Write a sequence for this structure.
């Protein structure tokens, strides 16, 4: 089968906009040119701008089988980094955790109606899909770290059951032929790297269990991909890896074991100082990802087109063909207004295009 994703750019998810319509309009105007992107996300606006902070507050906190172990101690009431985030635990005596609905799916369904309206108006091209980002379990449940070793095994099956039901609801509301689902994976990556102080043993098994269960629930007609990242809470990266070997191992497992076609993989790149560090990119020679389109997260707002060209040239020594993306979403962009950030990203990527 020929690749279903061949574009040059991936929009990871968040876009600096006040509303879904503003985000989709800005993305369409700036990025929906010929061959540049295959899908547009809804911007993850409003409460979702804190990524899985949304799951902490809208999914974990309200559940009757979960209680607060530590409230946020941020002076603003909004956590600025991991240690200011609230901490939760499964209530003593609870043997399972159940959720009826996933608020993120409600938002996606509502956003799709806006997407359809803009496509009908000719703002969004007919061949561009609607992109939805869904976090993997460790990322979604990262607030459960009062006693993660005890509580994650209790909550994770409930999350897997929720995902199975809600993916069905999502694909009933959004035609799979219009849909691109991206599995967002950051805390899993940090877990495997061994830098989460509360997660303990079993990191690889937590990741592989999610790969084995969740992507295969998505109809084959929909596109799916994996966003492998190191997080942006409070800044990118939360941890800078020595090289891309962990991401390559995760990517290879995902493609081989997800039970369906993997259409794309986003793999976070290095900070700017390591743009010419061949040792960082060398593990890319070990990718065994078939026809999946690889997008390297090597677009950094700090150094624009010259920096992207440096990282692109270094990566191309080990991977002959790839697309590019921001290191993560637009969530953490220093020194730019939202409009400037979007235009600069467009201008940098279109100036460089493929290696």
């Amino acid at each position: 089968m020929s690749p279903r994703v061949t574009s040059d750019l991936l929009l990871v998810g968040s876009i600096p906009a006040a509303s879904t319509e503003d985000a989709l309009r800005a993305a369409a105007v700036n990025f929906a040119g010929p061959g540049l992107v295959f899908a547009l996300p809804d911007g993850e606006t409003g409460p979702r701008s804190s990524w899985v902070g949304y799951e902490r507050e809208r999914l974990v906190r309200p559940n009757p089988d979960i209680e607060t172990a530590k409230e946020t101690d941020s002076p603003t009431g909004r956590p600025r980094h991991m240690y200011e985030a609230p901490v939760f635990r499964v209530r003593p005596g609870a043997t399972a955790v159940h959720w009826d609905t996933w608020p993120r799916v409600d938002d996606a369904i509502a956003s799709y109606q806006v997407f359809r309206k803009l496509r009908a108006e000719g703002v969004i091209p007919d061949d561009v899909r609607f992109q939805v980002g869904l976090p993997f379990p460790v990322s979604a449940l990262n607030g459960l770290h009062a006693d993660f070793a005890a509580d994650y095994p209790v909550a994770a099956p409930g999350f897997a059951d929720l995902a199975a039901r809600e993916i069905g609801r999502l694909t009933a509301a959004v035609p799979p032929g219009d849909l691109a689902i991206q599995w967002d994976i950051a805390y899993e990556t940090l877990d495997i790297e061994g830098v989460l102080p509360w997660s303990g043993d079993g990191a690889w098994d937590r990741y592989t269990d999610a790969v084995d269960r969740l992507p295969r629930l998505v109809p084959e007609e929909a596109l799916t991909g994996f966003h492998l990242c190191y997080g942006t809470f409070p800044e990118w990266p939360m941890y800078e890896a020595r090289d891309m070997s962990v991401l390559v191992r995760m990517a290879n497992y995902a493609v081989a074991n997800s039970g369906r076609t993997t259409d794309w993989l986003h793999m976070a790149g290095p900070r700017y100082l390591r743009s010419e560090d061949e040792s960082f990119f060398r593990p890319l020679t070990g990718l065994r990802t078939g026809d999946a389109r690889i997008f390297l997260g090597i677009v950094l707002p700090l150094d624009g087109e010259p920096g992207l060209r440096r990282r692109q040239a270094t990566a191309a020594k080990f991977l002959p063909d790839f697309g590019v993306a921001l290191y993560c979403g637009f969530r953490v962009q220093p020194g730019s207004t939202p409009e400037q950030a979007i235009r600069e990203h467009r201008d940098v990527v279109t100036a460089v295009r493929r290696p």
Summary: The two ends are 24 Å apart (CA to CA).
